[in-house]
Amino acid sequence: MDYFDQIAAGVRPPPPLAMRTEPDRLSSEELELSYAIAKKLPDMVQRGFTIETSYGELVIEPGRHADAIAATVRRSLEIQLKAAELARRDANLDGALA
């Protein structure tokens, strides 16, 4: 059971915000992206997934196509996560300089 599972199951409460320093506090965007990388992507590979469009659904069964799409999605999420981390860092630096 990882950190996200422990919070979801109520085994481990999230650390109080007062105990974390400002640079250590993740944004909600960073938490959502980290969760997607840690939980949703492995599930996509293991169980397959559905892509919903206005014209209907595309069902992607587990296998090489799911693996390839999940790898592309992982890279996209990692880029978004890095951008969110840099934005938080820059905001913290801007606040420290003010």
Structure in a nutshell:
The protein is mostly helical. It has one domain. It has three helices and two strands; from the N terminus they run H-H-E-E-H.
Can you describe this structure?
The structure is a single chain. Helix 2 packs antiparallel against helix 3 (64-97). The chain has one domain. It is globular and about 45 Å long. It contains 3 helices and 2 strands; from the N terminus they run ααββα. The protein has helices spanning 3-9, 28-47, 64-97; strands at 49-53, 56-60. The mean pLDDT is 85. Strand 1 (49-53) and strand 2 form a beta hairpin. The longest helix has 34 residues, at 64-97. It is mostly helical and 98 residues long. The chain has a two-stranded antiparallel ribbon. The protein starts with a helix and ends with a helix.
**Helix count?**
3
Taken together, the total number of domains comes to 1
Instruction: Indicate the low-confidence ranges by residue numbers.
Output: none
Percentage beta strand? 5-15%
Number of strands: 2
Mean pLDDT: 85
The best one-word shape is globular
**What value does the Rg take, in angstroms?**
17 Å
H/E topology pattern: HHEEH
Which class do the helix and strand fractions yield? mainly alpha
Head-to-tail CA distance between termini: 42 Å
What fraction, in percent, of the residue positions are helical?
55-70%
Profile the largest sheet.
2 strands, antiparallel
Question: Taking strands numbered 1, 2, ... along the chain, how are they ordered across the largest sheet?
Answer: 1-2
